[in-house]
What we know:
This protein has 279 residues and is an alpha/beta fold. The protein has one domain (5-276): Nucleoside phosphorylase domain (Rossmann fold, 3-Layer(aba) Sandwich), CATH 3.40.50. It contains 6 helices and 9 strands, in the order H-E-E-E-E-H-E-E-H-E-H-E-H-E-H. The protein has helices at 5-21, 96-109, 168-181, 201-209, 220-228, 253-276, and strands spanning 30-34, 46-52, 70-76, 79-85, 113-122, 132-141, 185-193, 214-216, 232-242. A 5-stranded mixed β-barrel has the order 5-8-7-6-9. Helix 4 (201-209) links the parallel strand 7 and strand 8. It is globular, with a radius of gyration of 18 Å. It starts with a helix and ends with a helix.
Amino acid sequence: MTQGGAEGLLGRVRAAAETIRSRSGLRPRVAIILGTGLGGLVAEIEAEAVIPYEEIPGFSVPTVESHSGRLLLGRLSGQPVVALQGRFHRYEGYSLQQVTFPVRVMRELGADILIVSNACGGMNPMWDVGDLMLIADHINLIGDNPLIGPNPDELGPRFPDMSEPYDLELQRLAAEVATRERLILRRGVYVAVAGPNLETRAEYRFLRLIGADVVGMSTVPEVIVARHAGMRVLGVSIITDSCLPDALRPASVEEIIRVAGEAEPRLTTLIKEVVARLG
């Protein structure tokens, strides 16, 4: 746990939320983490306030070039939303409490649904680079957990249930939208590792053996905290590179970002239409 323990965390969450409320009175229903491949959604949000992370107490600043550092409050498809343009990762040197702090704040602002996106490596030989994947479940191999340490009861239970980390009704809605919009949407298991290096052939074989379809370096800590806080979660991945151990080729960040950019319009359409159809 970061300095200050349970009471300190609760106080920092509330202080950050008050700072954001001073910029806008909007009470968001949906929280969105604009990971790699979802930056284009920013243009679709009718923003009431755009706040740089450095102006929000307790927020860290992303160090990855493809991640901006701004919080947006506004409306998307008629729904009040709060969006993070850029996320934090364990490999940047942040603790998982720092990585997930913005999720706590968005929940404090009123959001009860979290939509999260990411770029990932594909290990399912039946799927293609550029495909979207609905996250049905996950495996945490980061080697850490954001809930370790004192537990403020106001933020969630000591031992949260994780039998349904990704909301089944939201998955059904996303699948319906994908069918209507003629989007390829796979459904599978995401495994999170610490990074920042990509995996070896032997590691890909191991990850596939234990049931993972894709691998990445984010998302799972944020989902754990969201579920701890009682939020419903929808997760979507963009498969940006092929990680088949017997046909493995070197992957570059530039290529990963290029593929994510090509898939971005499809992912933006999916999320926009899902938000529009929320009851």
